[in-house]
Amino acid sequence: MNRILVTGATGQLGKEVVNQLLNKTDASNLAVMVRDASKAAEMKTQGVEIRTGDYNDYPSLVGTFKGIDKLYFVSGSDHLSRIPQHENVVKAAREAGVKHVVYTSAQRKNDTDSSPVAIINEAHIKTENWLKASGMTYTILKHAIYLDMVPAFLGEQLLETGVAYLPAGEGKVAFTLRADMAEVAAVILTSEGHENKIYDITNEKAVSFSEIVADISQLTGKSIVYVSPSQEEYIQTLSAAGVPLEYAKLFAGFAEAFRLQELDLTNNTIETLIGRKPVSVAQFLKQVYAAK
Ligand SMILES: NC(=O)c1ccc[n+]([C@@H]2O[C@H](COP(=O)([O-])OP(=O)(O)OC[C@H]3O[C@@H](n4cnc5c(N)ncnc54)[C@H](OP(=O)(O)O)[C@@H]3O)[C@@H](O)[C@H]2O)c1
Question: pTM, whole model, 2 decimals?
Fold first, then answer.
C-alpha cells in the first residue's frame, strides 16, 4: 500500500483531507507534516503518524518526506514567502524519493502580470513548472475560490448593515466548498490514473454577488443591497476601517479578478471523481444564512 503524507494538516483544508483519507484507507498508511505537533493530537490518537517540518527548513522537509510514496502538498499560506518555500518542498520531495506529488494550485485564466491576482498566481505557476520538470509524477489541482470564504467577502456585519460592499461588479465566480475539494483529494490519493494530470476543481455553476445577495435577502427576509465601488474607494474604505493595506489590496485584487470573470470556470470534474455533485452556492447560503 502507498504511504501518503499530507502537509498543512493542521490547516482547514489539510485537516479535512486527513479526515476524508481516514474513510478510505487505514491510518497506518497515513502521515502528516505539521509545524506544531501539539495541534495534531487528535490525529495521533487516530493512528496517523505525526512528523514535524517547515517549508522554510529544507533539511526538515527531506527528513519528513523519507519513505513517502504520495505527497499531498498544501500551498503555503504566506503569499509573500511561499515561492522559496515551494521550491524547497519540490526539491526535498525529489531528494527524499517521493514518487507522486498532488499539489493544491489555483484556478486562473490569466498567467501574466496583468492579472489582478498575479501575486497569488506567481507561486502556483512556478510550483507547477518545478513539478513538471522534477521527474516525479504529479497531479495539479487548480482549486476554485473557496465557497467557505463568501461570508468574509460579504463582511461579517452583513445582516446588521444591510450592505454588501465589494468591487466585483457583475462578475461570476465558481465558488467551491473546501470539504468537496478535500474529498476529491482523498479519492485521487487512494486511486490510480491521476499521474501527470491537471484538474480544475470547481463548481458546476458560477454566480455573481448580485445573485448571492438576492439569495441571502430572500433567506433572511432582510433587505440587503449590493454596492460595487471602485477599487480605489474600496481600498480607502477598508484601510480607514483599520484593515491592513496589504489585505485590503489583496481583497481588492480578488474582487477585480471576479469582476473580470477570471474565476468563473465551471465543469463536472468533482462529480466525476467523487460520484456526487459539489455543494452549490445556493445550498451553502441556505446552510449559513437561513437560520439568521
Ligand atoms: N482557493 C481558495 O479560495 C484559497 C483561499 C485561501 C487560501 N488558499 C490556499 O490554500 C491553502 C490551504 O488553505 P487552508 O484554508 O487550509 O489554509 P490554512 O487553514 O491557513 O492552512 C494553511 C496550512 O499551511 C501550513 N503552513 C503554512 N506555512 C507553512 C510552513 N512554512 N511550513 C509548513 N506548513 C506551513 C499551516 O500550518 P499551521 O497549521 O502550523 O499554521 C496550515 O496548516 C492556503 O495555504 C493557501 O495557499 C486557497
Answer: 0.97
**Over the stretch 47-77, which tens digit does the pLDDT of each residue have?**
999 999 999 999 999 999 999 999 999 999 9
Cα–Cα distance for residue pair 13/181, rounded to 1 Å: 8
CA angle 128, 132, 136 (to 5 degrees): 115
pLDDT tier for residue 272 given thresholds of 50, 70 and 90: very high
The fold of the 145-175+203-265+277-292 domain, in CATH, is: UDP-galactose 4-epimerase; domain 1 (3.90.25)
- Where are the strands (E) in the chain, listed by range? 4-6, 30-34, 49-52, 70-73, 100-106, 137-143, 163-165, 172-173, 197-201, 207-208, 225-227
Q: Are 265 and 204 in contact (CB under 8 A)?
A: no
Nearest CA to ligand 1 atom 44: 77
Ligand 1 atom having least distance to the Cα of 75: 47
**Tens of pLDDT, residues 217-229:** 999 999 999 999 9
Q: Whose CA is nearest to atom 21 of ligand 1?
A: 11
Q: Residue length, the chain?
A: 292
Query: Which residues lie with the beta carbon below 6 Å from any ligand 1 atom?
Result: 7-8, 10-14, 35-36, 54-56, 74-78, 85, 104, 106, 143, 145-146, 149
DSSP structure class, residue 26:
-
CA of residue 80 to ligand 1 center, whole Å = 13
Cell numbers representing residue 85 in the block: 518555500
Q: Indicate where the chain has its CATH 3.90.25.10 domain(s).
A: 145-175+203-265+277-292
Maximum CA extent, the chain: 58
Domain(s) labelled CATH 3.40.50.720 in the chain stretch across 4-143
Q: Which CATH architecture best describes the domain 4-143?
A: 3-Layer(aba) Sandwich (3.40)
